[in-house]
Amino acid sequence: MRSTTINTTLLRPVAEPPKPVSSPDNDAGAAFVLESKGQWWHAGFHLTTAIVGPTILTLPYAFRGLGWVLGLLCLTIMGIVTFYAYYLMSKVLDHCEKAGRRHIRFRELAADVLGSGWMFYFVIFIQTAINTGVGIGAILLSGQCLQIMYEEISPDGPLKLYEFIAMVTVIMIVLSQLPSFHSLRHINLGSLVLSLGYSFLVVGACISAGTSKNAPPRDYSLESSSSSRAFSAFSSISILAAIFGNGILPEIQATLAPPATGKMVKGLLMCYSVIFITFYSTAVSGYWVFGNKSNSNILESLMPDEGPALAPTWVLGLAVIFVLLQLFAIGLVYSQVAYEIMEKKSADADQGMFSKRNLVPRLILRTLYMALCGFFAAMLPFFGDITSVVGAIGFIPLDFILPMLLYNKTHKPPRSSFTYLINISIIFVFTGVGIVGAFSSLRKLILDAYKFKLFSSDVVD
């Protein structure tokens, strides 16, 4: 009897981990780009690269539309709300995985939970706007970093901003051939270290500038017109949303080896530890020195066109190099959704990742995508405006609205519960903020267009 019992136990089927809704057996996007091999710390590296980037150098610029009190309040609220939203999103993904449906794409998760086919295409549209906007911004800021270094060495040199953007685009085309999201894990560890490095350097440079004899006059006043103040405030809130935004958390969680339950929360804690250190220090030090004269890139404020640099040249030069290197990682991270969409349609999962059948389409499509981002970066150098528009129409819906909606739908908290009421409140508040922020951001983009020539060598604030 004992032998029979043992044999019966051994013959019972072993429970397998849930498979992705789109099985890698017939889905090249899942098999090649979103391969699930990572650990929780790899997710932490990816999250940190997706959130803690050189856009934090825009924080003093965002504060100039809000002032001290409202700026610090909005920065703190954005941090709390986004951590909460990402935590809920992770819980939703874990819930679906336990039910046997492991979602590896934001669009599939939203369509499945909300039961709406149009939601699938809505998320594709928003993610495309985010990916393209961040890709353009990363290339533009990289070109600006090269231009800054070049002008320090050769102030009257003939090279223009669009030529540096072309150089960056070529480098990004080469790096874009790394096949999968998981293959970026070591690059994104380096990105995390670089973000800490240039944040400390910028804070040190701002303290040096603020205490030097050449310190600029400090003016923290807001715009005189109440309507202008309101528009500026909502544009600044959109910038903060973009800086805290992610929009690709399901795709990042997809890189984790199953079961992914609980791993993303550890990654989030790692990421937000870095956020706390870098965001507040950069925002406070930059706005303290430059006030309402802060540029959309605080490094530009520290190295004015007229007069000497306001901090040691070697500090600023090293910060620019760190920013430039991290921008390559950010451009790669935010390109992954576009690559996954392209690879799902163009690649054959039955053949190898590096087979000629899959290598040639990958080379052509990724090259064209990066070339397109580079072209628009050179043609429309509106770094601050791009950030605010992407924040309003992209990050706010995906990071401040959908996670709460998805959680209420899957976990069904009682309507009278604190969790449900908080989630509904956040949805309503940020829906309004997103609508007004989109209008304000587009208004500023249109106004700035009158100051600007195509393929200009100056980035408009």
CATH architectural grouping: Up-down Bundle
Please write the string of helix (H) and strand (E) elements: HHHHHHHHHHHHHHHHH
Category from helices, strands and their pairing: mainly alpha
Radius of gyration: 23 Å
Fraction of residues in helices? over 70%
- Count up the helices: 17
> How many domain units?
1
CATH topology (fold) name: Amino acid/polyamine transporter I
How far apart are the first and last residues' alpha carbons, in Å? 81 Å
> Which shape, going by the Cα principal axes?
globular
Broad CATH class = Mainly Alpha
Parts with pLDDT < 50 across at least 5 consecutive residues: 1-17
Number of strands: 0
Mean residue pLDDT: 84
Describe the protein's architecture and organization:
It is found in: Endomembrane system. InterPro entries: AA_transpt_TM (IPR013057). It comes from Morus notabilis. One of its GO terms (cellular component) is endomembrane system. It is a multi-pass membrane protein. This protein has 17 helices and no strands. It has a single domain, classed as Amino acid/polyamine transporter I (Up-down Bundle). Helices cover 72% and strands 0% of the residues. Residues 1-17 have low confidence and may be disordered. The termini are far apart. Helix 3 (40-51) packs across helix 9 and helix 9 packs antiparallel against helix 14 (313-346). With 461 residues, the chain is mainly α. It is globular, with a radius of gyration of 23 Å. It has helices at residues 2-11, 28-33, 40-51, 59-63, 67-98, 106-114, 117-153, 161-175, 185-211, 226-244, 249-254, 263-290, 298-302, 313-346, 356-379, 383-411, 418-449.
